[in-house]
Write a structure and sequence with these properties.
This protein is mainly beta. It has one domain. It is globular and about 25 Å long. The termini are far apart.
C-alpha cells in the first residue's frame, strides 16, 4: 500500500509525469473534492479528482504558505 502524502494549499508538488512544457512541478491552488494544480513552468492549470491526484503525486517539493494566494 502506498504511504499517504499530506499536502496543503499552495504546496509545490512533483507529479509522476512531466507536463508537455518540460516541468513536473505544480502548485496546489484549490482543494476540495477536486484539486486544481498550476504548472510552475507555463502557468497552465488542471483540475482533477482527489483520488486521481493521490495516484499521480510523487512528492512535495516545497510547503506553501496559507497567506500566499496568487492563483
Amino acid at each position: 500500500m502506498k504511504p499517504r502524502i499530506d499536502f496543503d494549499l499552495n504546496d509545490v508538488v512533483e507529479m509522476k509525469k512531466q507536463h508537455p512544457c518540460g516541468t513536473n512541478q505544480w502548485k496546489i491552488i484549490r482543494m476540495g473534492a477536486d484539486i486544481r494544480i498550476k504548472c510552475q513552468g507555463c502557468g497552465h492549470s488542471v483540475m482533477m479528482p482527489r483520488s486521481e491526484f493521490n495516484r499521480k503525486i510523487k512528492k512535495i517539493i516545497a510547503k506553501g504558505n496559507e497567506q500566499d494566494s496568487d492563483s
